[in-house]
């Protein structure tokens, strides 16, 4: 019961933050939010496909990874990025809470 109440409170707080004042508007908001989320997911998937379509082996790896995700398995083969992008510089973890618990290998990852 507590979990359900917390979830409902969170949903109502989201409505308040969005300026929703009645439940009719909340239904419209939920519908539009669902539509936006679906469109965002489609754009993300399309950009992934376009990134790997140039290289057939990368494309095959991406397709197998998506099949694994769809079947509930975690992907085992990382997909190499051939987009020409540079790798990100290492993060500076100095002073962040909890970093003292990490060993050097974990900090490197």
UniProtKB/TrEMBL annotation:
Record's protein name: TAD2A protein
Organism: Pandion haliaetus
Gene, per the UniProt record: Tada2a_1
GO cellular component, one term: nucleus
Lineage: superkingdom: Eukaryota
A single GO molecular function term of this UniProt record: transcription coactivator activity
PANTHER family named among the record's database cross-references: TRANSCRIPTIONAL ADAPTER 2-ALPHA, TRANSCRIPTIONAL ADAPTOR 2 ADA2 -RELATED
GO biological process: chromatin remodeling; regulation of transcription by RNA polymerase II
Region (Disordered) residue spans: 70-109
Lineage, uppermost ranks: Eukaryota, Metazoa, Chordata, Craniata, Vertebrata
Residues in coiled coil: none
């Amino acid at each position: 019961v507590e979990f359900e109440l917390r979830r409902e409170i969170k949903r109502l707080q989201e409505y308040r933050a969005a300026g929703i004042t009645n439940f009719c508007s909340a239904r419209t908001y939920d519908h539009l939010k669902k539509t936006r989320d679906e469109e965002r997911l489609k754009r993300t998937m399309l950009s992934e496909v376009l990134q790997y379509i140039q290289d057939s082996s990368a494309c095959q790896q991406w397709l197998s990874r998506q099949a694994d995700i769809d079947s509930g398995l975690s992907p085992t083969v990382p997909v190499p990025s051939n987009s020409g992008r540079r790798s990100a510089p290492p993060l500076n973890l100095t002073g962040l809470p909890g970093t003292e618990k990490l060993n050097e290998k974990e900090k490197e990852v």
